[in-house]
Structures are given as C-alpha cells and as structure tokens.
Specification:
Length: about 270
C-alpha cells in the first residue's frame, strides 16, 4: 500500500474510533451509529449490487417484459413509494435514492430496506395482502427503518462496527456478500420497531391511504393465520400483543383519516404479477 493511501485509511480509522467514544448515543435504545449519510448510501449501493447479482436467493422480477405487465406492476409499486416519500415527513427524502424492486418468490411474506433506501418487496407479501393501504403501511415501516437509520445501527450490532468501517473505506468488499444474504433476516430492537410503526403512520397520514395500514396486515395474520408458517416479516419484526392497538392509537393521536383505497385497484395490481 502506498504511504499516502495508508495514512488516509489510518486517519479515517482513527477518526471513526474517536467518534465511537466521543459522540453521544442518538438512537432510542441508546445505541451508537457512527456512519454518515454518505456511508449509508455507499453501503446500500454495495449491498444492492450484491443482491441483484444473486438471482438464486433474490430472483428479481425484470422491470420490463410480459407484454408490459412488469412495467405496470413496477409503476404501481413506485406510485406507492412516491406517495410515502412525498408526504413531507421523510427526513432523507432527497438524499437517499429510494429504489424499489420486486422479489419474485410467492413463498416469502417479507419486505426489507437496505441502508440508503433500496427497498425490496416479495411477491408473496404482495399477494397475501388485501389492500394497497396494507402494503403502503408495510412499505412505510421499511422506509422508516432506513430513514431513521435503524438498518445501519443494526448492521453494526450484527456484524461489528469494524467490519462495516472496512467496507466503507474499501478494504473488505467480500463482507458485502455476507451482509446482503443476512439483510432480509435482520432483526430490530423493540424500540426501533415501535419507531418504525409510528413513522409508518406519520408518513401515511397526509396521503390518501389509511394511516394505520400496517395494522391491517397484522390483523389479517391474526384472523387467518399463515397456513402453518411464520412469515419472515414477523420473525424479523417482533409482534407484541399490543402492536395493532399501538398503531391505531398513533393514527388517532395524529388525527389521521381512516378511509381505505379501493380494493379493486389492488386486485388488478396483483393480477399483473406472474
């Protein structure tokens, strides 16, 4: 390694060490996040590239094809994303790229978001839900994890801050593969889950969606069960008994509307999927 490059890495490493010990905790659960917004974006881009290069684990639905049906499906999903992002309540609305992809796997009831706002939604979840409000609620929850930077914080806990720093400065790109494979199953603290639920409501409140749309997802699971399987979303997003009540209470506190979108439009969207 050239001396100048070595000194640059050494300086960055020392600065990050200082931040760890000198910057006060800023997350609800008292944890540290030493990464900048640009670090979130860079890590998200790397993880997204890895995800899209692994069609066996992440079989993405092509954005074109099937006589325009794929394009229509993506446009529908992007319209949901746009409504949430344009609610006026997403902190990093303009900083993060906020790209959304459909993972073609009907057996998986899940959605997740990388650092920096790369959103992945499984066809299994889309087909399981009944209304656009429910999907918007889940997507709002995932957007909140990225917007409130829970993802970076959790990756730090799961993989160690030193590993992530090595990735950010470019000295351990091989670790991106491990992170990409584990990201869909990354668990969050109860404090982070509550904040993501709250902000799902806050994001949806100014829109024409039912602000408590995420509660509809959990209510559906309670009423119908899951055909003997635990959804990946629940295994990575703990579901305390009072979660539905808390989401609906938050919608009341924010004075949000309760009107739901037409289910026929959502049924048409689902019919576009393979």
């Amino acid at each position: 390694m050239k001396p100048s490059l070595y000194h640059s890495y050494t300086f960055t490493y020392c600065v990050l060490l200082l931040l760890i010990f000198l910057v006060p905790a800023c997350d609800q659960d008292g944890s540290f996040n030493v990464f900048s917004i640009q670090d979130d974006i860079a890590l998200g881009q790397q993880v997204s590239t890895e995800i899209e290069s692994d069609p066996q684990q992440f079989p993405l639905l092509p954005e074109t094809g099937r006589n325009g049906r794929n394009e229509q499906a993506y446009q529908y999903l992007r319209n949901i994303t746009s409504k949430i992002l344009n609610s006026g309540n997403v902190t990093y609305r303009d900083e993060f790229p906020w790209k959304v992809k459909i993972v073609q796997n009907d057996e998986v009831l899940n959605a997740f978001c990388t650092p920096g706002g790369y959103i992945y939604v499984y066809t299994g979840l889309i087909k399981y839900l009944d209304t656009e409000d429910q999907l918007a609620g889940v997507m709002g929850h995932e957007i909140a994890h990225a917007d409130k930077r829970h993802t970076t914080d959790n990756l730090t806990k799961a993989y160690g801050w030193q590993l992530l720093i090595d990735i950010v400065v470019g000295s351990n790109q091989g670790a991106v593969t491990e992170i990409a494979k584990g990201l869909a199953n990354l668990s969050y603290s109860r404090a982070a889950e509550r904040e993501a639920d709250d902000y799902s409501v806050i994001y949806l409140c100014p829109t024409d969606y039912e602000a408590a749309g995420a509660a509809g997802f959990f209510e559906k699971m309670q009423q119908e069960g899951t055909a003997g399987r635990v959804p990946e979303f629940i295994s990575t997003h703990p579901n305390p008994d009072n979660r539905i009540e808390a989401i609906r209470q938050k919608a009341e506190e924010e004075n949000c509307g309760t009107a739901t979108t037409a289910p026929t439009q959502y049924a048409t969207f689902k019919s576009l999927l393979p």
